[in-house]
Amino acid sequence: MSTRTAPPHGAPCWLDLSTTDEAASRRFYTGLFGWQANEPAAEFGGYSTFERGGAPVAGMMPATGADATDAWGVYLASDDAAGTLDAAAGNGGTVVSSAMQVADLGTMGLVTDPDGALIGVWQPERHQGFLEYAVDGAPGWFELHTDRYDDVLGFYRTVFGWHTATEADTPQFRYTTMRDGDEQLAGVMDGSGTPDADKGWSIYFAADDVDATAARAVELGATIVRPAEDTPYGRLAVLDDPNDARFKLAGPNNG
């Protein structure tokens, strides 16, 4: 388990679910992780939040439009959201949503990186994001699969001030982590040789028992995309929730 009082600049700090069926998503995630769901806030376009143990853990908003789909999104912390958006535009990214003050909670924006992966920018004020992670039922890991590995790494280093470490660099597997001191907070994988990989940002939720959590998810209407398996990085599983929003589970190996 890890806790913090505020997210470091550039670190994943928040996640939210865009959903076409808020009631179904609320039932699923409260049933799966034991989260508590707050009522939607009309002043924020129907945005609502989940809590874990009384602390904010994730958000949810209605997906609208003819092409609306369900998906989880990731936000990176910024000390200066407007400056980060300008830097993104000047380093191969695209600004999707300009910096916008959200009451006294903070300032947000949206950009895409040079490979088109969408990422939120959050400058915290009263709302610091999730402060507990890598514990059962909380965010556990954030990972980007990209076809433009070198370009994208340069983008996150420059725009978000990432300090990185190369974990693997072979033709079969290239992987870099974003670090805060010795702590790993996110990963980037070269997906150019794996056409079936989930391109873009993925969210892993921590689970003390990945198999039991995956089984419970299926009982609640989820679909197994990749069954739980032991790996050098822990026991991992990939699922789609009842509305096809993809998420992943990570926990201790069984061996």
Automatic annotation (TrEMBL):
Q: Domain VOC: where? A: 11-124, 138-252
Q: Do you know which Pfam families this protein is assigned to?
A: Glyoxalase (PF00903)
Q: Which InterPro entries match?
A: Anthracycline_SecMetBiosynth (IPR052164), Glyas_Bleomycin-R_OHBP_Dase (IPR029068), Glyas_Fos-R_dOase_dom (IPR004360), VOC_core (IPR037523)
Q: Which SUPFAM superfamilies match?
A: Glyoxalase/Bleomycin resistance protein/Dihydroxybiphenyl dioxygenase
Q: Which superkingdom heads the taxonomic lineage of this protein's source?
A: Bacteria
PANTHER family in the record: GB|AAF24581.1, GLYOXALASE-RELATED
- This chain belongs to which protein, by name? Putative glyoxalase/bleomycin resistance protein
